[in-house]
Amino acid sequence: MSHTRVYNFAAGPSVLPLSVLERAGAELTNYRNSGMSVMEMSHRSKMFMDIFQETKDKLRRLMNIPQDYHILFLQTGASGQFSAIPLNLISRTGKADYAVTGNFSNLACQEAKKYGQISLACDTSSRNHSCIPRQTDLKRDPEAGYFYYCANNTIYGTEWDYIPETGAVPLVCDMSSNILSMPVDVSKFGLIYAGAQKNMAPAGLTVVILKDGLAGCELPLTPLMMNYKIMIEKDSMYNTPPCWCIYMLGLMLDWVAEHGGTEGMEKLKWQRANMLYDLLDSSRLFTCHAEPGSRSGMNVTFRTGDETLDAKFVQQAEEAGLVNLKGHRKTGGMRASIYNAMPLEGVEKLCDFIRAFDKENG
Ligand SMILES: *Cc1c(COP(=O)(O)O)cnc(C)c1O
Q1: Which atom from ligand 1 is nearest to the alpha carbon of 154?
Q2: Cβ count near 205 (within 10 Å)
């Protein structure tokens, strides 16, 4: 089967390691002699509860999550957290700071305005979100209930290379597209969340890592399914959790551990990304969207400046087995999403293709 696989540069849902898919395939119809698939198991069964607990333990180990943080396995996607975060946290002071550096932080900011007084810590839209502000550029309110930012801008291809310093104000971070791609000091955060479909598992699971003590001041109208306090009390099992995705996350976490953990992932990340940036910077035809110093190690955005030529690039790449390179409609051009599961050979093949295209069309 493996000879039919392509190099998939999709932004999400995105590539998973072949060995993870094969292991899931081998266990698909009969998980550990249970005679059934994980998809068919009661979420309250001993066998699934073991998967659930082991997956939490593996994530805690790999990310070095301190004991006073809860790990929640939720649904409603990363976008659900755009609402859940203000619903649960804004009443701490009625105010929050939002750093808008791309599409998803902007959506989160617009949503939060329904529930409290929101200040912009920064807004990079006038530069088409091609850069990340420095710490000294951030406008912060010491009375904010929390400070919100998105660590990696999936659409524009920028990534924060530092953790903002916010003093006593809890830091809230959307890590949907770069979680597990580097070691992170979780103790600096109040809340980290990520939709699983970029770097962790199939779509349908949202991981929330929440410091103990932050839950419990939700607004009275908070929907039951968005109430962190209830989800903590019920260990994410108020209702049926996304069982299959949690199982897949467990397999993916084993794979990350076998490949050097988050340190190993960080090395591979910049090996892949720098290979592309170096080539694009030295090409005749291509320019990168993101400014040096703000560039993402996960989503590389670039263009020729000629839409017809961009379309030709995407089409010919696809014919060469390099698929899903079309950029988001907001940026145009191309985007190569090179998450943890993208093998180095995939990026090498893409570089060969870029070199040949540059020579032929430049
Ligand atoms: C994809 C993405 C989202 C939205 O995720 P959904 O699970 O589709 O709601 C939010 N934030 C970031 C950074 C993303 O990459």
Answers
A1: 15
A2: 25
* Residue 2: band (very low, low, confident or very high) from pLDDT cuts 50, 70, 90: very low
Two tokens, residue 321:
């087995």
155 C-alpha to ligand 1 centroid (Å)? 10
Tokens representing 65 are 């999550």
* DSSP letter (8 states) at residue 12: S
pLDDT band of residue 4 (cuts 50, 70, 90) is confident
Q: What is the dihedral of CA 274, 122, 180, 335, to 10 degrees?
A: -50
C-beta pairs of 136-142 under 8 Å, 24+ apart in sequence: 138/99, 138/164, 139/97, 140/97, 140/166, 140/167, 140/169, 141/95, 141/97, 141/169, 142/167, 142/168, 142/169
Which pLDDT value is given to residue 362?
Answer: 84
CA distance 177 to 161: 14
* In the block, residue with structure tokens 């599409």: 103
Q: Ligand 1 within 6 A of 177 CB?
A: yes
Mutate to test the pocket of ligand 1, among 74, 75, 79, 178 (most ligand atoms within 8 A of CB): 79
Above 80 in pLDDT, residue 3? Answer: no
> Tens digit of pLDDT for each residue in 139-192?
999 999 999 999 999 999 999 999 999 999 999 999 999 999 999 999 999 999
